[in-house]
Amino acid sequence: MAMIKHFRRSRAGFTLVELLVVMGVFVIMSAVAMPRLAGALENYRLGMAIREVERDLQAARVSAVTANRTVRVLFNCPVAGQFRRVEVLGEPGLPDARDDVTSRCGMAAFPYPAQDDNPLTRPNLDGPLHSVAQGITFSGTSGIEFRPDGTARSDAFGGSITWADIPVGGVTATLTKNTKTRSITVNGMGRVFIIRP
Questions:
Q1: pTM of structure
Q2: Which of 42, 71, 84, 155 could cross-link with 64 by S-S, CB 3.0 to 4.6 Å?
Q3: CA atoms of 120 and 137, how far apart (whole Å)
């Protein structure tokens, strides 16, 4: 008889006190896990952004070599957190109004995809305008230029764009979101490396 009463009581369900204790434990665990989850999400977004930049840099180098044209990847183009791959229209190293950063970053004058399929009219190698996750900014260089032989040049931030050979140690572009950073390095031979944290 005692066993039957015990069986009936155990099938009756949970008491209100038991449910409140379980909910309290859940709330405490959630409060502890949320900052870690937010940090993990921030790391994930930063990692995705650095891989997107790395892919575009690799694509620019391949385009430069296969088409025998100079191709640039411009950062913070036209605003912070955006970048674009563009074909150099004038003579590399010489000023050309068509290669002005403000006009090349916008999609109005140089849309993607190109307006025609004619390989003789340029640009044919421009890419889309990319936006990284909100709050991510670029620093270290305003652009990387890949020449037809695969070598690279860069431009350090500082107002006017002046392209120069990359030093032996390479040039680093850093993506920052709040206190977290990820970096990507390009050496003078055009090799692209993501720096592991």
A1: 0.76
A2: 71
A3: 36
